[in-house]
Amino acid sequence: MKLKSLAAALLAAAAMPASAVSFINGIAIPGSTGDQFGSSVNDGRLGMFSDIYYDPNRNEWWGLSDRGPGGGTLPYDVRVQRFTLDVDRSSGAISNFQVVQTVKFSAGGTVMGGQFPGTLSGSAANLGTAFDPEGFVINPRTGTLLVSDEYGPSLYEFDRSGALLRTYNTPQALRPVLANGQYNYDGDGVSGRRTNRGFEGLAISPDGRYTYAMLQSSMMDEGGANGVYNRIVKFDNSNGEAVAQYAYRMDTAAQGRGISALVALNDNEFMVLERNNRGLGAEATLAGAAGNKNVYMISLAGATDVSGIDLDAPGASFVAVSKNGTPFIDLAANTLPETGGISPEKWEGLAVGPQLDDGSWLIVAGNDNDYSVTQNGSAVQFDVLYNPATQQRIQCPLGSTAGCTLAGTSTAYTGSTDGFALIPGVLHAYRASATELAGYTAPVPEPASWAMLGAGLALIGAIARRRV
Asked: Which of 57, 184, 324, 422 is a plausible cystine mate for 16, CB 3.0–4.6 Å?
């Protein structure tokens, strides 16, 4: 049956465009870059890009960082950054990254933290009491911020100041349940999402009616670490309820494979970023990074609603989403001098940017550098420094280059620290022709909102014709 499902998906995928997307350029953002709260490692240092979103209605770029540099073991005020990029509308080249606004998320007047408490088990009421944001979109109808979380998995709506407005209703089957029937948001259960692999990707339909949240990998009861089917959950934004689920098949489950981003092109077609856990990161294995950082085109048209189906049950009958067998973008095909020829490990941000002068589209991808921090079992943090010339990593006490060890070991590093720096954030710019992205529909606001938005955009355009 699974061969039949896969064959149907492959036939449908044949109609989708193959890749001819061109790499334009990339920029490296120093790992020491801070936000509007400063540059302290636990309150200011950028975590870079767990997701990226471009809002064409306001000419705004947004970059989401995750639970913080403590890996969930230390308190951190979770936030999102609004930033600017200079875009050459002729070539598509990007430059001059600048943070212009930092928004901390809050609930009931209290800033939401990324700390992962060790007691999250028991009742369903604990869903959402820890927060690891991974996906970000803006509702074109309301301007509100939608954020997906991989702990719960949860989906939240915030106002533009970061205040929580509501929590969407996560389907029961996705919640981590123990053998005794209790919930375990502190780790794995026997069913539901795997630990730290909840809602990783987030997309919104162009008309703002639906939000799509995607699990990073298979659920515990659908293959766990060896599973290859991820679920895409379609939520109705009018009531926060799930209305459908779809199955996406990854290339493999090897090397910690998972999805990291989901971008809506129209009501049925999406881009999915699928990657392994190799490459330049704070703790990742550097080797084996080539390939395995791919963006695929998929379509939900003809896919089965699998809300009530166990995807790995014997005889399970369903049609997965169609997936182009050829990657639309190979993110590892190009590297920057600042990464020493090694692709970043965690490509997690992906967005369609503005249309260029020739009618093509800018696509921007970014990495999560984990704040260039690691920590030991006692929650003591260390900066991770990287030398691109030697492809060597060391870990040092925060803010110091004395008392360093080779990364991931207790072996003292006695060499020079010249040439070492925190692992950078990376943004890549790609150009997709109007033909290659023919199905793309940019998010549009409610008709009643056009007059207000139009006046504001006209003013913005007069001030900076090429700054977006």
From this structure: 324
pLDDT tens profile 415-426: 999 999 999 999
pTM metric for this prediction? 0.91
For the beta carbon of residue 284, count every other beta carbon within 10 angstroms: 21
Length of the chain: 468
pLDDT in tens, 96-118: 999 999 999 999 999 998 877 66
Q: Token pair of 255, please? A: 């090397």
271, exposed or middle or buried, with CB in 10 Å at 0-12, 13-18, 19+? buried
Q: How far apart are CA 104 and CA 101, in angstroms?
A: 10
pLDDT higher at 457 or 343: 343
